[in-house]
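Hypothesis: this fold can be encoded by more than one sequence.
Test: take the structure tokens below, design a sequence, compare later.
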């Protein structure tokens, strides 16, 4: 299997808003310098194809619906510096279990969707037939309909009719 061309995820704690339970954002030093550089660099091949179908990610708990019509970086505060043709999507997370740059959904040359965990602290999971499998180390094929879990947020992936 060919791996998708994503750079490694940044280490936890790199960003000013990735603080431990014992400190707050105000306690971190040089917050402005850290926030001005988000550190995520995605390869241009991240945007290699647009899906033939538009997909919808829906979170019943928050009511958020996300349209997946191209490659996307998902997170609670995802990087804005991504290649042209891709998009960054903020996933609503009232429980604070989604990482800043949590996961990436991309499309390969055959139009197949893939998901890759981006080094998140609380993991990315695909739930099929009531069984949960963690996405770790390598990208995982993503077929609709299916359920995703980012941190403790459940998002249902469905194909939309064009």
């Amino acid at each position: 299997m060919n791996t998708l061309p994503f750079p490694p995820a940044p280490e936890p704690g790199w960003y000013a808003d990735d603080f431990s339970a014992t400190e707050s954002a105000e306690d971190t030093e040089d917050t402005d310098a850290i926030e001005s550089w988000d550190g995520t660099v995605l390869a241009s091949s991240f945007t290699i194809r647009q899906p033939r179908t538009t997909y919808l990610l829906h979170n019943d708990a928050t009511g958020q619906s996300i349209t997946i019509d191209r490659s996307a970086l998902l997170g609670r505060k995802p990087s804005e510096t991504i290649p042209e043709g891709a998009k960054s999507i903020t996933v609503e997370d009232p429980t604070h279990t989604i990482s800043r740059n949590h996961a990436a959904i991309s499309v390969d040359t055959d139009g197949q969707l893939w998901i890759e965990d981006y080094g998140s602290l609380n993991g990315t999971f695909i739930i099929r037939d009531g069984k949960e499998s963690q996405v770790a180390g390598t990208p995982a094929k993503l077929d609709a309909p299916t359920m995703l879990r980012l941190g403790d947020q459940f998002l249902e992936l469905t194909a939309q009719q064009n």
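The chain is about 5% helix and 35% strand. The chain has one domain: 25-160.
Hypothesis status: open.
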